Known about the structure:
There is one protein chain. The protein is an alpha+beta fold. Helices cover 29% and strands 32% of the residues. It has 7 helices and 11 strands. The strands form 2 sheets. Strands 1, 2, 3, 4, 5, 6, 7 and 8 form an 8-stranded antiparallel sheet that branches. It is elongated. The N and C termini lie far apart (46 Å). The N terminus is likely disordered.
Amino acid sequence: MSNQHAAPSNPNPQPPIPEPTHAERARTLLHLASVATLSTVSRKQPGFPFGSLMPYALDAAGRPLFLISTMAMHTQNLKADPRASLFVTQPAPDGDVLGAARVTLVGNVHQIADEEKPQARELYLKAHPNSLYWVDFNDFAFFRLEPVDVYYVGGFGVMGWVTASDYSAASPDPLAEAAQGILDHMNADHGDALILLTKAHANLEAESATMTSVDRLGFHVRCVTSAGIKGARIAFPREATTPGDTRSVLVEMVKHARDNHALPTNAY
Length: 268
C-alpha cells in the first residue's frame, strides 16, 4: 500500500527509463570540472561559511586535491576546523543555470602526508600545468578533501544524497569527455532528429528540441511545445561508450522512429 497521500492508482506503470546513478553523475561532474567553490568555517566570524575559488584535481577515489598557500584565509580556516564543502556546477547547456547539474561534497580537509606528495603533485600538475611555477614553493602545500556525504542535483526535480562509499566506488561516464561535442553537433545540425525522437520516445509534440545532456545510457532533451517548456529522458536501445557508438545508436533510433511514425526522411 502506498504511503503517498492520495496516490493515483496506476494498474500499468511504465518501467523507469535507465540512467546513471546519482553517484556516477556526481563523479562525472567532478571529473569534468577543475575549479569549484570551497566553503570553510570562518575563524574571523565563527560559525559562518567562508567561500573561496578553488582549483582542484581528483585522485583515483574521486577525492579532491588542493594546492593552497599557508597564507590563504581558507588554509587558516581549515587548520582551525577541517570541516568544509566543495560545490561544483556544470555550465548551463541552454542558459538556464537552475537546470544545470551541480554537486556538493561535504567532508574534512587535511594536509596530505609527505609520502603522498609525489603522486598528488603529478595529478595536480596534469590538471593545472601552470601550477608548475609555484608547486614547490615552501609556503604551498597539498590538502585533500575526504568526503563524508555528497549531495547531487541534476536539474529540476532531480536530486538526492549519495553516500561517500557509493561516490568513491562509482566511475565517470565513459562519454564524459566527448559529451559536449555530441551536444553541440546534435543541437547545431540535427534539430529535426531531436524533434522526431522526442515525439517517438517521449510522446511530445515539440516545436523545437535541445539535447541538454548525454551519457552511456541515453540523453535528456528540453522541448518547446504548445503547452510550454517540457523535459524528457530518452534511453538508448543499448549502451554507448564511445562517440562512434553514440552516432550509430542515434542513427538507428532515428531510422526506427521515421519508419514507424511516418516522419520526414531527412531527419538525420
